């Protein structure tokens, strides 16, 4: 114990000595005891002289103030530097940070590098000075400041890099310049990625150049720069892997595919090819590869174009069961045209689609699976219930079901009927008697296309359907539509009233073209040219057309030619037309063309403003002229 006291510095107190004896196993206390002289040289004192202060941090406030004054930085930036080097401050004196900052700035390194790489300040000052000296010795470097990213590497790695660079002969003077020239990348960018893969200098020069030649022949230069570690692999392995990837349906090959193990890459590609699953790698490139494979596979299976396969892929949102489901349906005899037309059913899981098809195969009186496969868009439990109901129901003298009965009665293909029934599943729940009676009534008075397009009318009782058809037939004759059965009474009455008024104007067999010829005095050719110029005029109610024509010809004294030149006026609101014409009359304007009346409100207001301004200018000229 006496010898130990004699060896200790005089500045070490007996209290500290007792602490060392009691806690000699604590390396931190022993370290602090033997660095007391160094600590006293620093102008930042310890928190106190207690035993716990031996391992405490230096005063944070004083250090932050010092960093702020030295770097002229904000409080947030000095706080960031402190936190990044907090562990180093437990071992080294606080002066380490300030000395390193002064050293870096003396070598022309910007403060920005210090903020972006604060851990560099934790490097012992002597080591940091050696790194800077070594980097200046790197051959063929125009500006040593560009090499600052290498300061994050270990001193041993930098020594090895500089030693290798001095011994080898390579175009450009060093591997950094050589890689920059070969890839067309700026030197600072190459240095950035070289600093994170500094072990590239451990590769033999011949191997480095050979691997770089192979990679640049198959990969993008920018990708090679970002993944320099790929150059460390055996030349034969790189060549073999890149050749295998070249023969795959990949659109883009990236260096990470060269680096992954063969077994991992092989299993992932095998899973995609055989089972249509997503590959193991969570990478955008693999996703692109999977998508490309599915698109090409669909083109092959369905015999469709690239645009069609892309449309199917987008409709199904790239489901992983897409190819499996297509292959399964083709095996079951479903034709490619049906699969393309009803692509949403491919979104089902493989097991669910198998169950749905098995359920459809139990359907009695099934003529062809293509007739009912559109029902696969429904849930499995819905489809099972529908098939059970159809099997328990008998229609017609020949045993059939609702789909085939409707198709045979209307002349549609069963697949077209099934597609609409799948969208309107209530057609399977309507009582049989109501279904048969309504279908008979509709076929007697309506077109079959209108019936299939509007199946909602089947939900009404046959009595209401017959009464509505009778009311509508009295006014409209043969021009009946399913919506007349299901619309409210007020809507039906309004429609029938307008039909009566139109019929009174046109007569029984007169068309709107013939009315134009008679009312405006044109021949049929001129009247047709009006509708070609403004096709929407055909959809305007004839009663409204009559009111607009009467107002323009009788009240405003416009000619039929004015209307023929601007037929859009017939589609314009009569109320708005009257309002605008009255306003124009007040300001003394009678437009030669009716087109200004049909303009938007903004354009019309602009015209009125310009007219008033021009009139005021003319008045002033007359007064002072």
From TrEMBL:
It comes from the Eukaryota. One of its GO terms (cellular component) is mitochondrial matrix. Signal peptide: none annotated. InterPro entries: MTERF, MTERF_sf. Pfam families: mTERF. One of its GO terms (molecular function) is nucleic acid binding. GO terms for biological process: termination of mitochondrial transcription. The keyword Transit peptide applies. Belongs to the mTERF family. This is Mitochondrial transcription termination factor. It comes from Anopheles merus.
